[in-house]
């Protein structure tokens, strides 16, 4: 991480030998296991990473946005596909950016959109409601803050701005920031974990998941698991990954409680051969995971003599030309790890016995049977949750409703970890009393007319399922029109009409809207004739008056009535001509 890319082979040969020996010693300490399956809701998956892991976290978040829906934390990384397969781009604008040499964000957005349309990455619409936490130290000398500024621009093209948080005001060097472990904040050097009195891991998790239980500041209650990565990628060390990875599993998750999973992607020179267990034990994630039912997955890289001596993640294509796509080897391997962890998911079953126990003019009371394992319930009206806090019993009264109105309800169980279960079958209820009057359509306007038609438009009215159109006080559409436009046909030319609109729903109709007037056009098609004045008079388009030709109707003087004067006449209506062309 002193460099997110490989250094010269000559400077890494001896460390590589030592690293290999250390790796063997570490592996001898414990026997790796197959990565277990847990009761994990994959819809609550997230990812974060530092440096090369920051770039990798962006790749995972964007390419697998349907998996990492909850969000991502990016520390000293950059926008998606920043290097574009080039180590020169990686070391240049994607790390040592300047005002004139920055990541080409607009081009990267275009590539993202193109890949998504081809199915090479997941649809970008999955990113809209995701939560993104960005961090860049003001004195980071490896990945300049200008690069992270472009990452913010990139993400805000897809993610709601309110869901993107960017912290860039702390004087920290290139490192993972903690509030209890590591070098001083301004140091750049192994293990590239700096104590800046700031709990970055906690801030990332709280931004992604919302309010969390206080972290465990004592002895952790969960278990560290070393798992076999060869299940997920063939010959891992050939492709820049270690034979084993690590996971922290809280006791509640090991006991089949419903949990979330957060993937943490370390940076270069931070795999166990370089810094032993410091990254997966001392970056702060486990303290929060332990009290908030979050499994933390720490996939691991491995140094290699070809292209990756520093154990970086593939974010510029040292191993795979498709490194940033779903098909990328390292990408697919981590996705498969998440799928394995979440394969034991068991959602709470749907509540049964949902019934309406009472109604008033303004309220509906519901009851249902309890669900084993549920700590409470959420109530949904028309698909929208209506209870503020979790309902601890099996009854609920929804109030503040409209009289004489119909509503549809469903119920979901909620675990003690806040995960919701399967939705119940819907139940319908109608409040007593007379329904409120329907809203009157507003904004009625004439949008066009011909000799036989008038076109209208208006604004949608709340609660309306359709609309009736009235001409001169008489309804003209036999059944309600579902849209907010209408064309009245079969009218008489050059005639004025008055229109109004009503809203309609469940046999009820509103009052008439404010009226508008429209006049159909005449229907006459103007034509022109160019001829001598004498011919115009003979054809009846003009009359002779004292030797002069006058246009019929307008009486415009065309000149002498003979064959030597030529005039163009336009007939604008029956028996009416003007000199010149049609208006």
UniProtKB/TrEMBL annotation:
Residues 1-30 form the signal peptide. Residues 350-435, 440-523 form the Fibronectin type-III domain. CDD domains: FN3. Keywords: Signal. Pfam families: fn3, RGI_lyase. PANTHER family: POLYHYDROXYBUTYRATE DEPOLYMERASE, TOL-PAL SYSTEM PROTEIN TOLB. This is Fibronectin type-III domain-containing protein. The lineage of its organism: Bacteria, Pseudomonadati, Pseudomonadota, Betaproteobacteria, Burkholderiales.
């Amino acid at each position: 991480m002193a460099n997110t890319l490989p250094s010269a082979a000559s400077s890494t040969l001896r460390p590589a030998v030592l690293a290999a020996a250390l790796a063997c010693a570490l592996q001898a300490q414990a026997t790796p296991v197959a990565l277990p399956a847990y009761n994990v809701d994959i819809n609550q998956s997230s990812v974060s990473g530092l440096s090369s892991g920051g770039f990798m976290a962006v790749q995972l978040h964007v390419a697998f946005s349907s998996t990492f829906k909850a969000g991502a934390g990016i520390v000293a990384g950059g926008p998606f596909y920043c290097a574009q397969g080039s180590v020169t781009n990686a070391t240049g604008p994607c790390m040592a950016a300047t005002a004139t040499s920055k990541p080409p964000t607009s081009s990267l957005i275009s590539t993202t959109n193109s890949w998504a349309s081809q199915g090479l990455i997941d649809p970008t619409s999955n990113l809209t409601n995701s939560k993104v936490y960005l961090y860049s130290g003001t004195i980071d000398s490896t990945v300049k803050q200008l690069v992270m500024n472009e990452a913010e621009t990139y993400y805000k093209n897809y993610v709601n701005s309110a869901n993107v948080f960017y912290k860039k005001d702390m004087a920290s060097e290139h490192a993972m920031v903690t509030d209890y472990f590591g070098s001083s904040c301004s140091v750049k050097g192994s293990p590239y974990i700096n104590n800046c009195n700031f709990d970055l891991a906690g801030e990332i998790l709280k931004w992604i998941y919302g309010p969390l239980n206080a972290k465990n500041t004592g002895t952790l209650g969960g278990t560290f698991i070393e798992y076999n990565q060869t299940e997920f990628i063939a010959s891992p060390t050939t492709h820049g990954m270690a034979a084993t990875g690590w996971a922290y599993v809280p006791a509640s998750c090991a006991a089949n409680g419903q949990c979330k999973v957060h993937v943490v992607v370390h940076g270069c020179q931070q795999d166990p051969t370089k810094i032993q267990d410091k990254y997966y034990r001392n970056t702060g994630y486990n303290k929060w995971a332990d009290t908030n039912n979050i499994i933390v997955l720490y996939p691991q890289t491995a140094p290699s003599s070809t292209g990756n001596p520093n154990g970086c993640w593939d974010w510029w294509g040292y191993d795979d030309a498709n490194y940033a796509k779903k098909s990328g080897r390292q990408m697919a391997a981590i996705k498969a790890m998440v799928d394995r962890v979440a394969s034991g998911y068991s959602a709470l079953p749907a509540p049964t016995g949902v019934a309406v126990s009472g109604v008033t003019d303004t309220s509906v009371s519901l009851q249902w049977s309890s669900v084993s394992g549920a700590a409470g319930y959420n109530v949904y009206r028309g698909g929208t949750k209506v209870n503020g806090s979790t309902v601890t019993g099996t009854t609920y009264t929804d109030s503040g409703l409209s009289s004489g109105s119909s509503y549809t309800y469903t119920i979901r169980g909620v675990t003690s970890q806040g995960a919701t279960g399967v939705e119940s079958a819907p139940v319908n209820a109608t409040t007593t009393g007379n329904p409120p009057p329907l809203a009157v359509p507003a904004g009625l306007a004439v949008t066009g007319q011909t000799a036989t038609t008038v076109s209208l438009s208006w604004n949608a009215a709340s609660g309306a399922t359709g609309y009736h159109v009235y001409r001169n006080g008489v309804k003209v559409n036999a059944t309600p029109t579902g849209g907010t436009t209408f064309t009245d046909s079969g009218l008489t030319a050059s005639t004025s009409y008055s229109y109004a609109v009503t809203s309609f729903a469940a046999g009820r109709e509103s009052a008439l809207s404010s009226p508008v007037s429209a006049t159909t056009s005449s229907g006459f098609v103007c034509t022109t004739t160019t001829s001598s004045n004498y011919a115009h008079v003979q054809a009846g388009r003009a009359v002779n008056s004292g030797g002069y030709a006058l246009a019929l109707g307008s009486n415009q003087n065309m000149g002498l009535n003979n064959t030597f004067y030529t005039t163009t006449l336009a007939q604008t209506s029956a028996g009416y001509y003007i000199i010149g062309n049609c208006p």
